[in-house]
Specification:
Blueprint lengths: L6 H6 L18 H4 L6 E9 L2 E6 L4 E5 H9 L2 H9 L9 H4 L5 E3 H6 L1 H14 L1 E5 L5 H8 L14 E4 L14 E4 L11 E10 L6 E5 H11 L1 H9 L1 E4 L15 E2 L1 E3 L5 E4 L6 E5 L2 H21 L1 E3 L7 E4 L3 E5 L5 E9 L1 H12 L2 H5 L4
Parallel strand pairs: 4-5
Antiparallel strand pairs: 1-2, 2-3, 5-16, 6-18, 7-17, 8-16, 8-18, 9-15, 9-17, 10-11, 10-14, 12-13
The structure holds fe (ii) ion (FE2) and zinc ion (ZN).
Fe (ii) ion (FE2) binds next to loops.
Family: Belongs to the gamma-BBH/TMLD family.
GO cellular component, one term: mitochondrion
GO molecular function, one term: iron ion binding
Length: 366
């Protein structure tokens, strides 16, 4: 394959030690101060040798480029870019019947013992959108250490790592005994948390509170097959959201986003669905009816594939908040729950570093 690469791009990507720091992987050259606009390869300044292009520039600087590295820069397809950027794996889309007998799970000790455990754990989360952790000590301290094996915990207006009982200490239905329909969290942020972990430490003097999970990506695929127009509407019409239950804040995303949000290559990137926190639907009045019709088809599909399973002390649940919706049935008695959020990029970084290795994670994008 031949491509015309601008000389300024090549010079800008020189990885010699004057231009690129070998351990921080940062560019050292001030591109727009130090590289003249008319930079060019010196006469006879290009030759090939042992898989490398060696270049002498018209100002005397010398650079070399690995051919494979160069090729990967311009060969990559939309799919391979999504793999590089998002750590996209072959997804196992599921309905309840596919996973209820053997949901993805991993042992607590494996995760705590080494990064190989984190590698397997994050891979399962990437593949299925959720994973149980078996044999976790039923304490907030053990649960927090577990979650921090992935990355630091994301703080929000509710705090960082949480440990609460249903007492409405925070202005949100999560802190009540009410049933909660399938939703994703944090639609009121421009960037919702990437992961959430729940651990029910105890449930006394009552019953109920079964947890619900729905694979939002599986639902999106069904909607696309069955109701392509509805899929299109939920992918294009944007929605606002808000969290205004605390007296001192009203969190709102700075821009509206569609329920089904895609990356620049057309891959479904994120499901944002929270009817409790939904605010203005950002379309014209004559588009509103079609948004409601599409959203009804979407919720019909969510109900068809939902998966119910009680939470148990000693068995935290972690899920991909950009893919899997969660909810719960109403309960009586007292439940003590702990858990927290992890940022998306921190999760994907940890996934890629443990599954691809450092070189393979950095090289395609640096
Ligand atoms: Fe939630
Ligand atoms: Zn250089």
């Amino acid at each position: 394959m031949y491509v015309n690469v601008p000389e300024i791009w090549l010079r800008d990507h020189c990885h010699c030690e004057k231009c690129f720091h070998p351990s921080t992987k940062q560019r050292l050259i001030e591109t727009f101060d130090e590289i003249p606009a008319d930079i060019s390869i010196a006469p006879n300044g290009l030759f090939e040798d042992a898989g490398m292009f060696r270049i002498t520039w018209n100002n005397g600087h010398q650079s070399s480029y690995d051919k494979g590295w160069l090729q990967a820069r311009f060969d990559s397809t939309n799919s391979s870019r999504s793999v590089e950027r998002q750590g996209l794996v072959e997804l196992s889309l599921w309905a309840a019947k596919d996973i209820k007998d053997k949901p993805p799970a991993i042992d607590y000790d494996e995760i705590m013992a080494s990064d190989d455990g984190v590698k397997d754990w994050t891979r399962l989360v990437r593949q299925y959108g959720f994973c149980y952790v078996d044999n976790c000590p039923p304490s907030p301290e053990a649960t927090q250490s577990l979650l921090e094996r992935i990355a630091f915990i994301r703080h929000t207006h509710y705090g960082g790592f949480y440990d609460f009982t249903a007492d409405l200490s925070k202005g949100d239905t999560a802190y009540t005994q009410l049933g909660i329909g399938a939703h994703t969290d944090n639609t009121y942020f421009t960037e919702p948390a990437g992961l959430q972990l729940f651990h029910m430490l105890s449930h006394t003097d009552g019953e109920g509170g079964v947890s619900q999970l729905v694979d939002g990506f599986a639902a999106a695929q069904l909607l696309r097959e069955e109701e392509p127009r509805a899929y299109d509407i939920l992918s294009r019409y944007c929605v606002f959201s808000h969290a205004s239950g605390n007296d001192t804040s009203s969190i709102q995303p700075i821009r509206s986003k569609p329920v089904l949000d895609h990356d620049g290559c057309g891959h479904l990137l994120q499901v944002r669905w929270n009817t409790t926190d939904r605010a203005r639907i950002d379309c014209t009045v004559d588009q509103l009816q079609s948004w409601y019709d599409a959203a009804r088809k979407w919720t019909d599909i969510l109900k068809r594939i939902e998966y119910w399973e009680p939470l148990r002390p000693g068995r935290p649940l972690i899920f991909d908040n950009w893919r899997v919706l969660h909810g719960r049935s109403a309960f009586t008695g007292k439940r003590r729950m702990c858990g927290g959020y992890i940022n998306r990029d921190d999760f994907i970084s940890r996934f890629k570093m443990t599954n691809y290795g450092r070189e393979q994670t950095i090289s395609p994008v640096a």
